[in-house]
Amino acid sequence: MTDDVLVVHGGTPLSGQIRVRGAKNLVSKAMVATLLGDEPSRLFDVPRIRDVEVVRGLLELHGVKVSDGVEDGELVFDPANVESASTDEINVHAGSSRIPILFCGPLLHRLGHAFIPDLGGCHIGPRPIDFHIQALRQFGAVVDKTPEGMHLTAPTGLHGTKFELPYPSVGATEQVLLTAVLAEGVTELRNAAVEPEIIDLICILQKMGAIIKVHTDRVIEVQGVARLSGYTHRPIPDRIEAASWAAAALATRGRVEVLGAEQADMMTFLNVFRSVGGAYEVTDTRPPRVGSPGQEGGIRFWHPGGELRAVALETDVHPGFMTDWQQPLVVALTQARGLSIVHETVYEQRLGYTEALNKMGATIQVYRDCLGGTPCRFGRRNFKHSAVIAGPAKLHAADLVIPDLRAGFSHLIAALAAEGTSRVYGVDLINRGYEDFEGKLSALGAHVERP
Ligand SMILES: CC(=O)N[C@H]1[C@@H](OP(=O)(O)OP(=O)(O)OC[C@H]2O[C@@H](n3ccc(=O)[nH]c3=O)[C@H](O)[C@@H]2O)O[C@H](CO)[C@@H](O)[C@@H]1O
Ligand SMILES: C=C(OP(=O)(O)O)C(=O)O
C-alpha cells in the first residue's frame, strides 16, 4: 500500500484540456460481444484501464486473439478459435471486475458451458446477481454455484423467453441481450435498463446482425438469429469520466475542457451542474470536412466565480441523474451555500466515502430516510442512503484511503480543492476506470507526485 500513494498539494484550480475515450461501461461489454461473432471485430477508442485488461485477459484465455489495430486505442478481436479455459486460469481474474458475469450467454452459445469467477467491482452495496441467474435459467441454462465460482451448461440449448426485471438493472439487461441474440426464438425483456451504454451495445449487436427492437416503456424485444458477424465500432465516450472532471473543475474553482464529452448523454448532469452555479459550453462537435483537420468537440466546464448554490438531487436509472456521477459532484456541493440533499436510490451503501470528506472539514450527515424525493427501495431497509451537505466548507488536507472507484476520484478532487498537502492511499484503484488520470492531472496543472 505504501507505494500506492499520491501526494496531492491542494489549492490550485485545475485548468486545461483533457480527452475522454470510449466509456468503461460500454467498451468492456463490447469486448465480450466479440465472442458472439464468427468474424473479427474492431473497436476504436479503447481506454487503457484495468477493466479492459481484465476482459482482454479473459477473452484471450478463451482463445480470442486480441491485437492492436492501426489507430491508438484500436483493438481487433478474432474469435475464430474460441476454446475452453481451466477454472484455475479463469480464477486469476476473480474479484477484479463485474464484467465476467456477462460471459455466460456468449460462452454457452460458443462452447455449451461456462465458468464464471467471483465478481469484483465497487463495494457500494450487496450487488446480487439474482436477476442474471433467473434470466439465464429461463433461457435454459443450468447454473451451479460452487465455492470456486459459477458453472453453467445448456443441455438443450438456449431459447428465447419472456422476462421482467424487478428493477431496470444495467448488467441484467446486458446479460439478456448478449444471451438472446443467438438464442432460438424471440425474447421479450420488460423493465429493461436503457442507459446510453446499453443503446450503444444494441448498436454493436445490430451491426453484427442481431434483430433488436427497443419499444416504449422499457420493453426490448430480441429475435434470435442463427449467426452473427463481427463489428467495427467507435464507442460512446465516457460520460462518467467527463462528469468527474467537470466536478473537479467546479470544486477547485477551475476550468476544464473535456474533449470527446457528448452533450446528449450528459443532459441530466449538465442541468444539475448549471443549477449548482457551474458554467459550461458545448464546443464544436461538427465532424471534420474532408481534407481539413477538423476540430474535436467536447464540453468546457468552469467555475464562473462567486458562490455555488445548494441543490437537491436524487440518483436514478437513465434518464435520471447517474449514481456514478454522485460521488464526484458531492465534493463540489461541499462548496455550495446552503443545504444540498442527495438521495441515492440505485445503491444501498454509496455514501460511506462522505466520512473522509467530513474528516477534511466538510459537514455531511447521512440518513436512513428517503430525503427530498420519492420513497425508494431502501427507505424501509435501514440503509444510510440520503445525505445532507451543509456548505460552503473550507476543506483541509488529510490522509485518505480510497474505498472504491468513484469515491476514489472524489477523494482526489477533495484533496485538490483542500488547502495543504494530502496523501491519498490506494490510488491504483482509480486506474480501473480513469485512463492515465495522473497524466491528466498534470496536464491540468495539479500539483501531485508519487513520494
Ligand atoms: C460495469 C458497469 O457497467 N457498471 C455499471 C452498472 O453496474 P451494474 O450493472 O452492476 O448495476 P445494476 O444496474 O445491475 O444495479 C442496479 C441495482 O440493481 C440491483 N441488482 C442488480 C442485478 C441483480 O441481479 N440484482 C439486483 O438486485 C443492484 O444491487 C443495484 O442496486 O450500472 C450501474 C448503474 O448505472 C453503474 O453504477 C455501474 O457503473
Ligand atoms: C460502480 C461502478 O463500476 P462497477 O460496476 O465496475 O463496479 C462505476 O463505474 O462507478
From TrEMBL:
It is an enzyme of class 2 (transferase). Pathway: Cell wall biogenesis; peptidoglycan biosynthesis. The active site is at C122 (proton donor). Keywords: Cell cycle, Cell division, Cell shape, Cell wall biogenesis/degradation, Cytoplasm, Peptidoglycan synthesis, Pyruvate, Transferase. It comes from the Bacteria. SUPFAM superfamilies: EPT/RTPC-like (SSF55205). GO terms for molecular function: UDP-N-acetylglucosamine 1-carboxyvinyltransferase activity. CDD domains: UdpNAET. It catalyses: phosphoenolpyruvate + UDP-N-acetyl-alpha-D-glucosamine = UDP-N-acetyl-3-O-(1-carboxyvinyl)-alpha-D-glucosamine + phosphate. It is found in: Cytoplasm. The modification 2-(S-cysteinyl)pyruvic acid O-phosphothioketal is found at C122. Its EC number is 2.5.1.7. The keyword tRNA-binding does not apply. Cell wall formation. Adds enolpyruvyl to UDP-N-acetylglucosamine. This is UDP-N-acetylglucosamine 1-carboxyvinyltransferase.
